[in-house]
Amino acid sequence: MTRARTFRGGTHPPGNKGLSSGKPIRKIPAPDIVRIPLCQHLGAPSKSVVKKGDTVIRGQEIGAQNGFISLPTHSSVNGTVTGIEDYPMPHRRSGPVVVIETESEEGGQIFEKWDDFHDHSPAEIIERVKQAGISGMGGACFPTYVKLSPPPDKKIDTLLINGVECEPYLTADDRLMLERPDDIILGMEILAYTLGVQRCVIGIEVNKPNAIDVMKKKGVTVLPLKVKYPQGAEKQLIDAATGREVPAGGLPLDIGVVVQNVATAAAVAGAVRDGEPSIRRIITVTGKGVSSPCNYDACVGTLFTDLIEESGGYSGDVERLISGGPMMGIALYTDGVPVTKGTSGVLALSPQEVRDIAEGPCIRCGKCVDICPLKLVPSMIATAAENDRWEMAKEYGALNCMACGTCSYVCPAGRYLVHYIKKAQDAIRSGQGEGA
Amino acid sequence: MEHKRFELAMSPHVGTQQSTRKIMFDVVIALLPALAAATWFFGPGALLIVALSVATAVLAEYLCLKFMKRPVSFAFDGSAIVTGILLAYNVPPGVPWWLPVLGSAFAIVVGKQAFGGLGHNIVNPALLGRAFLMASFPILMTAGWTAPEEWRNGQDNPWETNGIVQEELLEMPNADAISGATPLNVLKQSFDLDKSAALADEEGNHAEAAELGARASGIRHALSQKSTYLNLLVGRRGGCIGETSVLLLLAGALFLIIRGVLEIRLPLSYLGTVALFAWVFGGSGWFNGDPLFHVLAGGVILGGFFMVSDMVTTPVTPKGRIIFGVGAGLLTMVIRRWGGYPEGCSYSILLMNLITPLIDRFTRPKIFGEVKEND
After folding, report:
1. Residues of A in contact with B122 (CB under 8 A)
2. CA-CA distances (angstroms) from residue B172 to A173, B141, B193, B206?
3. Domain count, chain A
């Protein structure tokens, strides 16, 4: 086997994937009431096109695309719209949801099935990916069709499929690769065809040997990667795979690369082959705070409450409930939030799992500087931000931070580095740094 | 529907087991072996000095925090203990008991708490405390040398204070100024003799020049006879309380490296520079100095592994750390070779501490994917 590759910097949080990695994906039926958010993707929320009392079928568009960086939203069930209301969200405080009373989940074929995608032009496929509402399922939720439409002056030569799943605890992508490799591979082929690229590689961390085996047996070029956080971050994956650095402030397509998550690839395959819009996804429900961790195939609009109940409820004290992984996931104040296209995990952490340390002053140990995957100086940005010195924060690279959390993770003083850096980003972007 | 409520917090939600407190106590543990050597060679008096210094540091920190209405828990995070030990390690074993008490209190109150406490001090508090003592009590701080094992063997101990035969000592100019000296002290005297010889030569007094020159080399020869590498390694020589036992200090440093607490760039660049400089300029001519002697004989092992690598007062950038180490190494050797003191370790570190913010500013790492504007 070729030596696993990696990037410079990073850290090694305990994986804790064993809690759920052995649990096959369980498809769970839609709950009696689904709440489908109209803002599941990055960009403008879709505009509701249904009203209270309307009957909708599975796959029907209930929210229309509203701008270039935006996507349509679809119903995940057959049923009746009982209202459009503001509801708590996993990725923000709240947002509009379409509430649908579920009647059934059968049928609902909206898009035509395409047996052979080669019969269709890349433009047609891009349109389908857009109509199906597919956004990046690795976490960023960026509309996928936009990534497939690079400006004509950018020559794309490499498609990287991201099967790294470097967030501790999460196993959704791992299970997907094990159980539905054909979907991923078809999605990969469709994406490569659409982008017109020859070089197509799937990057997987070596802590998922079974997934690597499965993919290799299917004849896919696998790039084994060292287990290190944040190996799955787009720029770090590209660095490890190609040795190219995405320019600061630039995009992967500036250096001829497009990265798509394995779940996104599978969703593209579903949209093209089966005419399925993006209304379901794989979610890992885990942590020592749930009775039986598991991986689910659930429809968008299912509440976290339902998923926790499926997993046998909470076990013992739950210190923190998180949407996503422990490194970048968002803490929730309630489990009454709906699953979105971007929900990769629901994490209930016991008090023992959460870091318990009182924040102390920076002792300038320089650990954060050594491990920052983007080569920033987190301690200095944070100190600048604490003192409202936005210009200085900018100088030390605040705007480049992707909030991966590695610096906070290693900080012996327990400083909330990510928090300060985000604060600096907000201040700089809102122009507070000027004229100071 | 009834939903459970949870606490909110910023990501990441998990973190390392490491903490400031653990780091500080690791440093304390790493410093302890050298204390055993100090007690063995310099007697229980050395142990008492360290104990007094540590107690004063912790008490001073506690009182400062109490007075400033800040959380007193900081007094027990281990950082005051480190400062207390380091201050005691940097004074001669024969000083009166109140000297380390005064130095330690100054280190904490002026060197640390006046700047805002842990993490905010600009210079190493222990070294500032030592500089304060040097400036205020120069005689006590340079005359308190004790010969190794003197406390057990009495006056007729086999080891002269400085490792020099007594007759040579008596013939030295300013002999009383170095009564009881460290190897570096003696080396300094030999260089002073060289200078006098050169001066005599210029005045045409060739016979005196030859005699002085011969004495200088005689002293250097005697020094190499007595201060053997083995003696220097185990710490059987005159010197500050904690600086003499190179082997045990290295053992402590190794422990810190294993614990992931020691940043290796700083000590390596520092000691490397000292050794290189010693080889080029450290002898009577060029390129005939003894790098190993210079590394082992003074305080640079203690300084390099426990003070040059102090986290708070040194740069955080990788490049900055190398610049700091090289700069401190150069200053140490310039002071040793041409300055007024036989040892330049502590002042070199203090001077470099002062420009640490500047070094950090000019050595910001290149951001991932950063392109220069004119590229």
Report:
1. none
2. 80, 21, 8, 19
3. 3
Looking at the fold, whether A201 and A223 belong to one and the same domain comes out as yes
pLDDT single digits (tens) A168-195:
999 999 999 999 999 999 999 999 999 9
Q: What is the pLDDT of residues A273-304, one digit of tens each?
A: 999 999 999 999 999 999 999 999 999 999 99
Radius of gyration in angstroms for the set of CA atoms belonging to chain B, rounded to a whole number: 23
Question: Is A358 among the domain residues?
Answer: no
Contact state of B7 with A319 under an 8 Å Cβ cutoff: yes
Please indicate whether, in this complex, the C-beta atoms of A377 and B364 are within 8 angstroms of each other.
Answer: yes
* C-beta atoms of B119 and A365 within 8 A: no
ipTM of the complex: 0.91
Is residue A175 within 8 Å of residue A24, measured between CB atoms?
yes
Q: Looking at the domain assignment, is residue A19 inside a domain?
A: no
C-alpha to C-alpha distances, B324 to A419, B260, B298, nearest whole angstrom: 30, 20, 19
A215 and A123, same domain (yes or no):
yes
Q: What's this model's pTM, rounded to 2 decimal places?
A: 0.91
B contacts of A408 (beta carbons < 8 Å): 10-12, 15
A48 and A183 share one domain? no
Are A127 and A73 in a shared domain? no
Domain span at residue A406? 367-429
CB B34 within 8 A of CB B245: yes
Q: What is the pLDDT of residues B125-135, one digit of tens each?
A: 999 999 999 99
Low-confidence ranges of chain B (pLDDT < 50): 1, 156-180, 374-375
Reading the block at residue B351, the tokens are 């001077």
**A12 lies in some domain:** no
Q: Give A-chain residues touching B6 at CB under 8 angstroms.
A: 318, 320-321, 331-335
pLDDT score for B174: 41
